[in-house]
Design a protein that fits this description.
The chain is of the alpha/beta class. It has helices spanning 15-38, 46-73, 101-117, 130-135, 162-174, 185-198, 218-258, 265-281, 291-304, 310-323; strands at residues 94-95, 122-127, 140-145, 150-155. The longest helix is centred in the last third of the chain and has 41 residues, at 218-258. The chain starts with 14 loop residues before the first helix and ends with a helix.
């Protein structure tokens, strides 16, 4: 019988041994309990407490905003505002503790502000792991789960350092991305990605079988339909302005390079005027990548740009019409 229970016949030879073993086990248990009581968890540093509060503030902001989105667009979904957002592990979806506290605070500030003004399916805010951050050229990315009525924003920790923020500001001044004021680097990145969370043009929406949350995509479809012709007009207008600029610039530059003629003040003025017109129409180089980046750049330009384009304002007004909170 002893072997059947996993013990050898020598383990329990008498009632005395059994009593002794029981007493020993009880003493060891008491000792372990005492040790565990004595071992207190190390107290959090002020920086760790600050970061935990930032994560918590971000979590509350995102889920509160998503609850508004749920009420408006999601057929299947549980009310979140009534939940214990602070202690419910299922809602523990904001984890940006790898970042500098000032950076993470700026991220949450931007998301909180946008969440108060727009309906977004954003439910998760995280930091890319080491491999993804090394391989990605992006400052941040947004991934949709359209059928679940949710989206995740992932921050590249290597791109939001001091040097990373300086780099994106330099790109802004060179026209690669929206021009914004110094100090608004994080706000620009988050606003651009938030635009992706609100509306992507190119992504395929799920059919009925994959629309698990019964999300109403009517607003998405209408906004897409209204923005697509603006995107087409923008591309054509920018191209025409660029062609005109090149037509004026190239012959004058040829004269300068080969010395085939004198470059006059009128030539220089003509180049400057054509360049100014081209720059006034083009939102950024990045906005010409595709329709999705056009929408995100328009949204960021209208929100944080120093001189928003008429195309940016037109797209922003459409986004406000379908996804803005009254």
């Amino acid at each position: 019988e002893g072997n059947l229970m996993g013990f050898t016949s020598e383990t329990k030879t008498s009632s005395d041994n059994t009593d002794t073993d029981a007493e020993t086990d009880e003493a060891l248990q008491d000792e372990n309990e005492t040790d565990s009581e004595d071992e207190e968890e190390p107290e959090m540093t002020e920086e760790e407490k600050a970061q935990e509060n930032i994560d918590l503030r971000g979590r509350k902001s995102i889920w509160s905003s998503w609850d508004d989105y749920r009420k408006r667009f999601v057929g299947h979904g549980v009310e979140v505002k009534a939940q214990d957002i602070e202690n419910n592990t299922l809602l523990d979806t904001v984890k940006i503790s790898k970042l500098d506290n000032n950076v993470s605070a700026s991220i949450v500030d931007a998301i909180d502000d946008l969440g108060n003004r727009y309906y977004s399916p954003l439910t998760k805010l995280t930091v890319m792991d080491k491999t993804d951050s090394l391989l990605s050229h992006a400052f941040a990315v947004v991934n949709h789960q359209w059928g679940l009525g949710s989206a995740e924003m992932r921050i590249n920790p290597l791109k939001v350092t001091d040097s990373g923020r300086k780099h994106i500001f330099d790109l802004s001044q060179k026209g690669y991305c929206v021009k914004f004021a110094s100090g608004d680097e994080i706000k620009y990145v988050i606003t651009h990605e938030y635009g992706h969370s609100l509306l992507n043009i190119g992504e395929k929406l799920p059919g009925k079988a994959q629309n698990f949350a019964l999300v109403d995509f009517t607003a998405v479809k209408k906004a897409r339909k209204e923005i697509e012709p603006i995107w087409d007009k923008y591309c054509n207008t920018v191209q025409a302005a660029k062609d005109n600029y090149d037509k004026i610039r190239k012959p004058i530059e040829t004269k300068m390079i080969f010395g085939t003629g004198e470059v006059t003040d009128a030539d220089r003025e003509a180049i400057a005027t054509a360049k100014k017109k081209y720059d006034s129409i083009k939102i950024s180089d990045y906005s010409l990548t595709n329709a999705d980046e056009f929408v995100a750049e328009c949204f960021a330009d209208a929100e944080v740009g120093t001189n928003p384009s008429e195309y940016s304002l037109a797209v922003s007004n459409i986004i406000k019409k379908y996804f803005g909170k009254a």
